[in-house]
């Protein structure tokens, strides 16, 4: 063997080694703040706007990913459109699992929530049935009804707009799911769903010790320091009520022949005809999941719409002009107008993008070791899409991503700019995208269109009685985030009250 041959073989070996190393990457995780022994980064978890903090830390580290270490777990935050698409979408086969929480699944008994289920056939079955039952033909009449009932309540200048928006989402979903008509913010069914959502928010805000050290779940409830078990027991009972109380209500109405059309009443009728493909227990949990969805991120999104219209009156007037030009002066919007008012569609997209209702998406989990961008992502790592950061990615959504600019989704001639994607990430990514995303978007659209036609939203006033400073607005730190409460006046537009009254009468 000549020296030239030896040199070529050595060079080839070196090239193959470099290629293999680059393909597999190192054994190091992506960058993140230095972890302390035992407790890891638990003291580093920010309490205010964590989605903004994680995005900033990621940028400071020169990476689009951020790794945090907790006792017994690792979290990887994805802070760009590219990383989310590469991992959660293109590699969804191994990034679609959910991390399992001892507090949620075992102690609180929330394993019936299919959004929290491990990836597999049980999850697929629940999702398939949800999509079949909650289709647009089923949902749209209830969404129109809830939006028009909201307009009547807004005629009363003393109402709390935030509570009315909460009531609107609850009204739409309870009506579609159980045929229950909601007339008051103090409605028992609304309160029941809100109570469980509040519990889930509390669990999501900070890690429970039992999730880091599952063995302590065996401590007796009466033992000092076992308050988490006593609390979990109360929340477990609440979860049972959410599944059973509204369902039993519909059952009794079906028996009396007074049930309104709904997914639940349709299922019960099918059971009598032996034409169902799922059990009552399965349907109870699917209906309850939809029920909880009405008390979640959709409310925050509607509050963001209200905030944006009050902060940016010139955009509000452009949207009003676009909607009235399409509808004329003599009717309220319905879904025959859907997709036919480009500025309104752009406005809805910008509301979803500007401050998404779930700024940190639900955790995914990777089901096997993976290499990406030269880093090792170990099996079981919790993957958190930073939805806020993804939807503020200037490389995708253009310059000034922190500003509210509906026109970013439009061409100069006012038609849709197809280069800028819809902010569908507001509803999740990959195979774990929210099954209620169609209702979330359509309820926002019909509510926004209805308000823009009939009301002018005034300047936002903060809790101190002064005009709200948009640079100081802090959204709540929870899985369903919303802006702080502010006062604003809904002034009915000339001739709109008669239109509102007529629109409600048409429902009857």
TrEMBL record:
Highest taxon of source: Eukaryota
Coiled-coil intervals in this record?
A: none
Instruction: Report if keyword Phosphoprotein is assigned.
Output: no
List the GO molecular function terms: heme binding; iron ion binding; monooxygenase activity; oxidoreductase activity, acting on paired donors, with incorporation or reduction of molecular oxygen
Q: Which residues bind heme?
A: 434
* Pathway(s) the chain acts in: Secondary metabolite biosynthesis
Provide this UniProt record's keywords sorted from A to Z: Heme, Iron, Metal-binding, Monooxygenase, Oxidoreductase, Signal
Obligatory cofactor(s): heme
* Signal sequence, renumbered to the chain: 1-27
Q: Where are the transmembrane segments?
A: none
- Which family is it part of? Belongs to the cytochrome P450 family.
Q: Which PANTHER family match?
A: P450, PUTATIVE (EUROFUNG)-RELATED, P450, PUTATIVE (EUROFUNG)-RELATED-RELATED
Record protein name field: Cytochrome P450
